[in-house]
Amino acid sequence: MKFLKENINKEWYDEFCEGSLIFISLPAHAVGQGIICLKNQYKGAINFFYQEKTHWMTLVEDQNILAEEILNKYLENKKYWQEWFKKWQNRTKVFSLVFEKIIKIDLSSLSEKTLWRLHDQLWSSVFKARQIDMVIDSFMFGGERILVEELKKFCRYKYFKNIGIFFQVLTLPEKESLTSKVERELIKIAVDVRKNKINRQILESPLEVLNCRAIKRYLQKYCWLKGNWGMSVEYSINELIKEIKELLKGDLKKTILERNEQFSSNKKKRKNLLKRIKFNKRIRELSNLSVFFSHWTDLRKINALKFIYCENRFLKEFSRRYKLNFEGLKLFDITELKKILKNRKRFNREVKKRKKLFLAIHSHKRFFTFFGSKVKNQLHHLISINININKIESLSGMGACSGKVKGRVKIIHQYREFYKFKKGDILVTGMTRPEFVSLMKKAKAVVTNDGGITSHAAIISRELNVPCIIGTKIATKVLKDGDLIEVDANQGIIRKIK
Predict the structure, then answer these.
(1) What are 426's strand-pairing partners?
(2) Distance of alpha carbon 114 from alpha carbon 107, whole angstroms
């Protein structure tokens, strides 16, 4: 608690999302133990947990210091981050082998000793990769601030009016994302259905669909795809059928063509802009780093989702074997599991406390939990805003994908709320994650509290060509379901319409 007391009045970056401590343990321990490719480090990470949601917070000053170090290392040695990326790839290969082994095993058939040894292998292998790739977050947020400030200075000097378009083009992803890759593979299945290589009638029977090799192979390959930091959601056959049917409504040839051209088009746009406008060295290199880290962010996402999927399988087995509440297990840090599972009374006592708001701190290689009214007061202090939100008529952020639209607000925080989102709504959320893609495809526009030069919302909105504004900080507090708003992503402005 000393760490929080010393920094309580500083500026914290709040990422509000679905989150359970058992899964959040991965990035939290990477922050607490230290990012091995950086000299400077975060002072720590704090998480306020309540009902599978969390306020993940790190200090803004830490993000900025680390982002400057990331840029400086690149300016000194252009190969520095590529070399660390290769080390990360080697660690990821080890994790992938462990993952493939686990998903083929019936965990209930293992002895206790073997079960825990396999669990330790999962944690050790994914954590070693995360100790490197946690550097991405520092650049995602701190790097965005540096780039925006550099662009502001450059535009003032050169008398350019709008930095938004520059920002969007300079940070365009140039390699295919996970979302695009997955959809491309699903489109192939949809094409086979349309050409009658796969009988369309089987889409009316989930049991028959599983007899189709191509569909079964796809479902097995991406069994981990639908998870998030709060839960592992099974990729169901019914959901897959729904996605295939949705694709069949559209022009598949056009979609394939657009996907094939998109990333080469992005590369040309950025190249032409850098050739046409004589940006300073820092802007040019920040742009290069953005493209690099965008790709790495997407690859890291695969590791995280696979870890969540496997850890969820272990939790189910622990629940069965030790006769403990499954949902309760998600309330513990991964380093607490072995001890807590063998003491049922303590487990039940801790679960009762953690069903209420609680605080977890990972700092300087140590982990602490706190409970009670003090925690509630601290959260209120950190997330409160000293403005009258009822009087706010407009919001500003950074345009991630250009466009200007009007529509009705739908605020979505978690998977359980997806049912209320309709086609043509404007998606307003803290941050988007892979499971949000289905909503983003139906959305007129996307607005997020969180920013991030390589954030999921920024990357995917450009792929889908959906107007998007990121980094508003308070959109989910100011806007309400049903509000009529105008999203001007060209200027980075959201206006309420009376």
Answers:
(1) 409, 445
(2) 9
User: Contact 450/472 with Cβ under 8 angstroms?
Assistant: no
Dump strand ranges (E) for 36-155: 45-50, 53-59
Q: 71 near 289, Cβ under 8 Å?
A: yes
Judge contact between 1 and 361, C-beta under 8 A: yes
Beta strands in 11-118 (DSSP E): 12-18, 45-50, 53-59
pLDDT value of position 387: 67
Do strands 445-448 and 468-470 pair parallel, antiparallel, or not at all (unpaired)?
Answer: parallel
For the stretch 212-245, pLDDT in tens is: 899 999 999 999 999 999 999 889 999 999 999 9
pLDDT band at 210 (very low <50, low <70, confident <90, very high): confident
CB distance 151 to 283 below 8 Å = yes
pLDDT at residue 490 in the model:
92
What gap in Å lies between CA 307 and CA 99, rounded to an integer?
8
Extract the tokens encoding 488.
Answer: 């001007």
Tokens of 306: 């696979």
In order of their start, the domains of the chain are 2-135+296-383 (no CATH), 390-496 (3.50.30.10)
* Long-range residue pairs from 433-438, CB within 8 A, at least 24 positions apart, any chain: 433/17, 433/18, 433/228, 433/229, 434/178, 434/179, 434/225, 434/226, 434/228, 434/301, 434/305, 435/226, 435/227, 435/228, 435/233, 436/412, 436/460, 437/179, 438/243
Measured between alpha carbons, how far is residue 434 from residues 32, 360, 368, 401 in Å? Answer: 26, 25, 30, 18
The torsion of the CA quartet 454, 459, 462, 464, rounded to 10 degrees, works out to -170
Name the one residue in this structure whose structure tokens are 């349309």. Answer: 194
Say how far apart CA 407 and CA 467 lie, in whole Å: 12
Burial environment of residue 304 by CB neighbours within 10 A (0 to 12, 13 to 18, 19 or more): buried
Q: What is the per-residue pLDDT across 260-299, written as a single tens digit (0 to 9) for each?
A: 888 999 999 999 999 999 999 999 999 999 999 999 999 9
Residue 252 tokens read as 């598949």
Strand order in the sheet with 426-429: 394-396, 493-496, 484-488, 404-411, 426-429, 445-448, 468-470, 398-401
- What is the rounded CA–CA span in Å between residue 341 and residue 419? 35
The model's pTM is 0.93
Q: What is the pLDDT of residues 371-398, one digit of tens each?
A: 999 999 999 999 876 667 777 899 999 9
Across the chain, mean pLDDT equals: 93
- Structure tokens of 415? 């998977």
